[in-house]
């Protein structure tokens, strides 16, 4: 397997709380890996630990075969990992255009092409280019958060619950955007919306109480009602 990101026996604490006990997974290049699990299982903490926003206490995180565990978040981002956090992380008192400009690392032709592509995909961003980020709707904020991560040439995108709180029609739009991004970028997706996760994902890992406890192909999970019921509470 051509692995782009590899976590081995990752442990992490938030203050005195032991949140991640043993997270181990492999992200193959060019595929969408979905992290599933109940509320509070540790999915967001896993992404934050990869980005260096949470300390890695034990274990290893390798990106392109290089150890990146506990590097500063901006160093990790500069290695080619984009992050769309659950709370979207946009600047409410900057306009859409300014939010994009702050995110852009390199002002070159390639970036302009990517910007044009994402603005075509999300015309609302073009329409509200001069509107303050804080005044956008939930769906528009999500589009802006995805656009900010996509505009740079990242090899890997970590996307945390992009469908959260969005109307079904917007979920479809966001899903379509991720499906298109998947053509060029490797993706790790945290997603509770099983329809979206199974529609986009190639394979999955289930996280339970800070441990990766099961993994396989998405097709296999779709047909395993008992597994879905046991660990995800759906069937
Ligand atoms: N700042 C914090 N202080 C203490 N505990 C925290 C903090 N942040 C998260 N936790 C705990 O860590 C555990 C994992 O949280 P995390 O957000 O990673 O879960 P999750 O799988 O992403 O859940 P969800 O699907 O609800 O977003 C939870 O039990 C949560 O209460």
TrEMBL record:
Taxonomic superkingdom: Bacteria
Any Pfam family the entry gives: ABC_tran
UniProt xrefs under SMART domains: AAA
Biological process according to GO: L-amino acid transport
SUPFAM superfamilies listed in its UniProt record: P-loop containing nucleoside triphosphate hydrolases (SSF52540)
PROSITE patterns according to UniProt: ABC_TRANSPORTER_1 (PS00211), ABC_TRANSPORTER_2 (PS50893)
Name the UniProt record assigns to this protein: ABC transporter ATP-binding protein
Source organism of this protein record: Siminovitchia acidinfaciens
């Amino acid at each position: 397997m051509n692995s782009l990101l590899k976590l081995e026996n990752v442990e992490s604490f938030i203050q005195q709380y032991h949140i991640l006990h043993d997270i181990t997974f492999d992200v193959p290049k060019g595929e969408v890996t979905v992290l599933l699990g109940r509320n509070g299982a540790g999915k967001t903490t896993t992404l934050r630990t990869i980005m260096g926003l949470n300390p890695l206490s034990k274990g290893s995180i390798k990106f392109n075969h290089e150890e990146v565990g506990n590097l500063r978040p901006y160093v990790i981002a500069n290695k080619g990992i984009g992050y769309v956090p659950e709370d979207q992380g946009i600047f409410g008192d900057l306009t859409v255009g300014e939010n994009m400009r702050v995110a852009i690392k390199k002002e070159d032709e390639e970036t302009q092409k990517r910007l044009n592509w994402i603005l075509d995909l999300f015309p609302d961003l073009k329409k509200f280019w001069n509107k303050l980020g804080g005044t956008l709707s939930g769906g528009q904020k999500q589009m802006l958060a995805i656009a900010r991560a996509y505009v740079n040439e990242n090899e890997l995108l970590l996307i945390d619950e992009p469908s959260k709180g969005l109307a079904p029609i917007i979920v479809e739009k966001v899903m379509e955007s991720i499906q298109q991004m998947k053509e060029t970028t490797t993706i790790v997706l945290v997603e509770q919306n099983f329809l979206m996760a199974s529609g986009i994902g190639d394979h999955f890992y289930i996280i339970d109480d800070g441990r990766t406890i099961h993994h396989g192909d998405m097709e296999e999970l779709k047909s395993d009602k008992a597994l879905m019921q046991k660990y995800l509470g759906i069937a």
